[in-house]
Amino acid sequence: MRKLMMTIAAASLAVPVLPSAALAHDGYYHGRTWQDSQGRLRCKRPNGTTGLIVGAAGGALIGRAIDTRGERATGTILGAAAGALLGREVERGRYRCR
């Protein structure tokens, strides 16, 4: 019974891999770039969400450390906003379509 369950588990992990392997050989899709129906080259770029979240967290920590007077809410909020904008632009700008 244990071998049967292990076989079923291994097969269920291998099933999602099969369609993606089939897409890689169709000639149009190669990772982040593909050709549309008119033959133009298209690419998928990140939208910057991860950079926005990481940048906001880092900026909030840095802004809180810099603003040492009072309750430090202003420094935290300004740091989070600046970090979010910077992180988003860094993530969106690192990938170029080729």
Index terms:
98 residues; 3-stranded antiparallel beta sheet; 4 helices; mainly alpha
Notes on the structure:
The protein is mainly α and 98 residues long. The protein has 4 helices and 3 strands, in the order ααβββαα. The longest helix has 21 residues, at 73-93. The chain is flat and about 65 Å long. The N and C termini lie far apart (51 Å).
Q: Outline the biggest β-sheet.
A: 3 strands, antiparallel
- Label the overall shape: flat
| End-to-end distance | 51 Å
**Unreliable runs, pLDDT <50, ≥5 residues?**
21-26
Label the structural class.
mainly alpha
- Helix-strand pattern: HHEEEHH
Number of strands: 3
Rounded radius of gyration (Å): 23 Å
Helical content stands at: 55-70%
Tell me the strand percentage band: 5-15%
Describe, in short, the structure shown.
60% of the residues lie in helices and 8% in strands.
Secondary-structure map:
Layout: H1 2-14, H2 17-23, E1 29-30, E2 33-35, E3 41-43, H3 49-66, H4 73-93
Helix pairs in contact: 3-4
